Q: What sequence folds into this?
DNA sequence: CTGAAAGCGCTTACAG
DNA sequence: CTGAAAGCGCTTACAG
C-alpha cells in the first residue's frame, strides 16, 4: 500500500503537522526534527497525495490546454514545449484535443472545470470561428486565468507571432524578385492576418489585388491541409488564373500546392514560386525546400507559460488583457526564385 | 464562487448524502427527490469536485502517458488518438514527454505517482535502451496497471505492430523488383525488429547480409531523424557501398536519405529505390511519394486503451502479461522501382 | 518549536 | 427511501 503522512509521522515519532511543515519547507521546524522526518520520508519513499493537498490549497498545479489536434507538427511541438516548461515549474499539463469536432467543445469545458485546472491555454479550438469565440467566452466568464494564442476577444491575453508583418515581408520579398501576379491560399483556421498582410503589401506596391487569385478558405480541416492546398491550387490553375508566385498560409498547404503544380507539369521554383508559413521540419526537407516564415514556437510557449503562471501565483498583481506579438523570421530556401 | 454539494443539498432541501446518491446514479433515490436534486444541480451549474471524489474512490480517472516527443507526427497522432478515446470513457490523459532527456525520467515517475494516475501507457521513453528498461521496471514494480507499445519486459502487456513481418515483406518486395544489394538504416529508437525482418528476408532468399550495407544506429535523437538519415546515406555512398535499394526504419530517415541521394546526383527511384516505415502523412506528399509500411495507429490506441481500462475497471479479472501484435500494411508508392 | 483539532468536498456504511 | 456521521490525506490556525 501507499504510505500516508500518518505513516511518516509514526516512523519519525512526530505529529503529522510537523511532517507537513517539513514537506512544505516551513522554517519553524528544528533542524534535528527536520532531518528525522526527512529520513522517514526517504525510508518509506513517501510522496504526498495531490488530491488531498488540492482539497485544501484549492490548487491542482494543473494547466489545461486546448489544441485542435496533435497529429500536426506545429501544435504537437507547441504542446510538448509547454508541457516541459510547466513540468519544470512543478505543473502538469492536461491536453485536450478537439479534432475539429464541435461536439467536443462542451465536454472539454466540463473536463476543465471538474479537474479544477489552475489555468487554461487556448491554442486554438479549430471548431470554426463562431464556436471558437463561443467557448473562449465561456472560459473567460468562468473567470479562470487564461492565455490564448489568438486574440479572439478583447478580454483575453494573447501571445502570437506578427503574422501580418511577416506576411507583408513575404510578399515584399516576392515582389522584390520581380513577381507581380501573386496568388494567395489561406484558411480560416490560420486567421485573417496573413491575408491582410498579403493585401497590404500589394497595396503599398500599388499592385491591385486580384480576387481571382485569392482563396480564403472556410471548411478545411486540420487533418487535410495539404489536400486542401492541392485542390485549391489545381482549381486555380484549371480556372486559368495567371500567377507566377503563390503564398500559402501554412507549409502543408504549400506542399500540397507544389504537388499540384508538378502534377500539372510545372516546376517549382522554375515555373512558379511558392512560399509557405510555419517552418515545420518538413519545410527544410521537402523538395524543393520551402521558403517560409518561422513560427517562434519556443518563445510563444515560454511567454504564454510565464504570463499564465504569474497570474496564478501572484493573483494580487493586477492583470490587464493584452496581446503580445512576437517577431517572426522569413526563411529563404529553394521554393521561390526570381520571376521569369 | 464554486458551488459544493452542500449548496445543492440546501437548494434542493435534502441531505448531501442524497445529492451524492443522485450524482452517482444510485437507484435508491425516489424519483421525485431525484428530480428535485437534478433541478438544483442544473440551477447552480454544479460539477462535483474531482479531488474530493479521488480522496475516497482512490481513483483519479487519469491515465498517464509517457511519450518521447510530441514534435513528431507519429507520437502526436498516437497520443491524440488515445486522448480522445479516453475522454469518451470519462478519463483524462496526462501526457509526459521525455524529449530524450534522461534527467526527466525520475521527475516523470514522481509526477505519475503523486498524481495518482490510475494507469500508465508507455509509448516509448526514448531515453536509450537501458534507461527505458530501468524506468519501465520501476513502473512495473510500482504495481500500477500498465500497457506499453514495446515489450521491454516479460511482465509487461504490450501492443505493437508486426514490425518484423512487415519488414520482411518490404525486403521481399524489393527482391521481387530485382534488387539484391539492399542497404538498411535503422535506429535503436525504432527497435531491432525491423533489422531482424530485413535479415530474415535476405536469409530466406539466400542473399548473404553485407554488414557494410547495414547501419543500426545508436545515438540519434527523435528530433533529428531526417538529418541522421541524410548523414548515414551520404556516408554509405561516399564509403563506396554498392546498393540499389535502401530500407529505412522510419519515414523521416527515408526522407533524409532521399535528400542525400539527390544531393549526390542520384535520382529516386530511377537510381536507387528507397522504402520508409510508419506512413506519416508526409510519406504520401513527399516527392517522390514514399513506399512505406503503415502503422496501425488507431488500432494500437484502441487496443491499448481497451486493455488498460479493463485492468483498471475490472481488477477481479486476472491479468496475464501478453504481447498483442497487429498486422501492418505495405503501402506501395513511387520511391521504389525495379532494379535496373 | 511541536501537536491536537478542525476542515477541505466528497462517499459510504449504517440507523431510522 | 433519506439523513447524520465517519473518514479519505492533507494543511493551517491555534495552544502550549
A:
Amino acid at each position: 500500500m501507499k504510505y500516508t503522512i500518518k505513516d511518516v509521522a509514526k516512523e519519525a515519532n512526530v505529529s503529522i503537522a510537523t511532517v507537513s511543515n517539513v514537506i512544505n519547507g516551513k522554517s519553524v521546524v528544528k533542524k534535528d526534527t527536520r532531518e528525522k522526518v526527512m529520513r522517514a520520508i526517504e525510508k518509506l519513499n513517501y510522496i504526498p497525495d495531490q488530491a488531498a493537498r488540492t482539497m485544501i490549497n484549492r490548487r491542482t498545479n494543473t494547466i489545461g490546454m486546448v489544441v485542435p489536434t496533435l497529429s500536426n507538427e506545429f501544435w504537437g511541438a507547441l504542446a510538448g514545449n509547454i508541457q516541459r516548461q510547466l513540468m519544470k515549474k512543478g505543473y502538469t499539463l492536461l491536453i485536450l484535443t478537439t479534432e475539429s469536432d464541435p461536439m467536443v467543445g462542451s465536454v472539454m469545458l466540463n473536463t476543465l472545470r471538474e479537474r479544477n485546472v489552475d489555468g487554461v491555454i487556448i491554442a486554438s479550438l479549430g471548431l470554426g470561428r463562431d464556436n471558437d469565440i463561443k467557448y473562449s467566452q465561456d472560459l473567460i466568464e468562468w473567470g479562470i486565468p487564461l492565455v490564448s494564442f489568438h486574440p479572439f476577444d478583447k478580454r483575453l491575453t494573447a501571445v502570437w507571432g506578427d503574422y501580418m508583418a511577416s506576411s507583408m515581408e513575404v510578399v515584399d520579398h516576392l515582389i522584390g524578385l520581380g513577381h507581380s501576379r501573386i496568388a494567395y491560399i489561406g484558411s480560416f483556421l490560420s486567421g485573417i492576418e496573413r491575408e491582410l498582410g498579403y493585401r497590404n503589401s500589394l497595396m503599398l506596391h500599388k499592385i491591385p489585388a486580384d480576387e481571382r487569385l485569392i482563396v480564403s478558405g472556410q471548411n478545411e480541416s486540420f487533418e487535410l491541409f495539404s489536400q486542401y492546398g492541392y485542390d485549391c491550387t489545381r482549381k486555380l490553375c484549371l480556372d486559368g488564373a495567371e500567377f507566377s508566385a503563390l503564398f500559402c498560409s501554412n507549409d502543408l498547404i504549400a506542399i500540397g500546392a507544389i504537388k499540384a503544380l508538378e502534377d500539372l507539369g510545372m516546376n517549382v521554383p522554375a515555373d512558379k514560386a511558392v512560399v509557405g508559413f510555419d517552418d515545420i521540419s518538413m519545410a527544410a526537407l521537402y523538395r524543393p525546400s520551402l521558403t517560409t516564415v518561422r513560427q517562434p514556437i519556443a518563445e510563444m510557449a515560454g511567454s504564454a507559460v510565464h504570463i499564465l503562471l504569474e497570474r496564478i501565483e501572484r493573483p494580487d498583481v493586477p492583470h490587464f488583457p493584452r496581446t503580445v506579438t512576437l517577431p517572426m523570421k522569413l526563411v529563404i530556401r529553394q521554393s521561390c526564385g526570381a520571376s521569369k
Summary: The longest strand of chain B covers residues 62-67. Residues 61-161+297-326 of chain B form a domain with the Rossmann fold fold (CATH 3.40.50.2300). Chain B touches chain A through 48 residues (CB under 8 Å). The two ends of chain B are 75 Å apart (CA to CA).
